[in-house]
Write a structure and sequence with these properties.
Rossmann fold, 2 domains, 5-stranded parallel β-sheet, globular, about 300 residues
Length: about 300
């Protein structure tokens, strides 16, 4: 009886969808009470008899799938994963893209770079936490899928029960700055503590804003603390390594003005400083994706057809 009450309490705490056609917002649905249906649901602990209010002995009361979806949504909210990116997974990451107005050799090289990046990030996620990598740094110009791959890894780890956190680089700095306002209800440590202690942190678009001494010190503190505590950090950035000439040559065939401009302007070290870049070398495996901005390709193709 105590076990039954505990189970009922556990499932009643799950949030059901009010408009769910299966359970009508109760969080429970009825299935035929027979051995096969019971076996189908034995992976989750079930009450030994029907729940109160179910007087029909011919049916079995089981938690509705909408409660699981609600739990997943709560997990995504806690991890701060934006709604825009929640569709991202490894299955829908495309690495066989039909770039227009490019030679077959160029297209093959770009798609090979995309496939290699997908394979490495997926392998890292599959092997976590027993793998040897302590982090991933995804480098490449805009629109090559860096955030998609990083979010795919984060969501997979969330589903396996790991504590994960997403932050856009600029948003994180702004939240910390806002905490200095005397009228703010948050504090600097209130913002930083989850960032420092999350089992897996995704820091998206590193170096997107112009560096200041305060920003560099803040990022260095985050990365050093996580490095010393052996916590995993995933990072994406639009800025590349190496001298500007070498970067420009690697991207000269991408037909991307943004890629060429980025490659000939700042490097990642210019944006975050040599000390932080050195720390990232120790923390993360670097994956450079060489391909043009496919979002731009799609927009241009749509405009051309119109």
């Amino acid at each position: 009886m105590r076990l039954r009450r505990a189970l009922l309490k556990e499932y009643s705490c799950r949030m059901a969808r009010p408009d769910c056609p299966e359970c009508l917002g109760t969080g429970w649905k009825m299935v035929p009470r027979n051995p096969s249906s019971r076996r189908n649901h034995q992976s989750q602990p079930q009450p030994s008899t029907q729940i109160p209010g179910n007087s029909n002995p011919g049916v079995w009361s089981v938690p509705c799938e909408c409660t699981t979806n609600a739990q997943e949504n709560k997990s995504l909210l806690r991890a701060r994963i934006p709604e825009r990116y929640r569709h991202c997974d490894f299955e829908n990451f495309e690495s066989d893209l039909p770039y227009d107005h490019a030679s077959s050799n160029q297209v093959a090289a770009w798609n090979q770079s995309l496939e290699q990046a997908k394979m490495v990030v997926r392998s890292f996620t599959r092997d976590y936490p027993s793998g040897t990598e302590h982090g991933i740094l995804l480098m490449g110009t805009c629109g090559v899928g860096k955030t998609h791959l990083a979010i795919a890894a984060l969501q997979e780890l969330l589903r396996r029960g790991h504590t994960c956190l997403y932050y856009d680089y600029r948003e994180l700095l702004k939240e910390i700055q806002d905490s200095y306002n005397s009228r703010s209800e948050s504090t600097e440590m209130g913002v930083l503590d989850p960032v420092l202690k999350a089992e897996v942190l995704l820091l998206d678009d590193l170096g997107a804003s112009k560096p200041s001494l305060w920003a560099l010190e803040t990022v260095a503190h985050i990365l050093n603390t996580r490095y010393n505590d052996k916590r995993v950090t995933l990072v994406t950035t639009n800025f590349l390594d190496g001298d500007s000439t070498g970067s420009a040559q690697r991207y000269s065939n991408s037909r991307s003005a943004a890629a060429a401009q980025t490659a000939t302007e700042d490097s990642l070290s210019d944006r975050v400083g040599a000390r932080i870049r050195s720390r990232l070398y120790e923390m993360c495996r670097t994956i450079e994706i060489i391909a043009p901005d496919y979002r731009k390709e799609i927009r241009q193709a749509t405009r051309f057809r119109a």
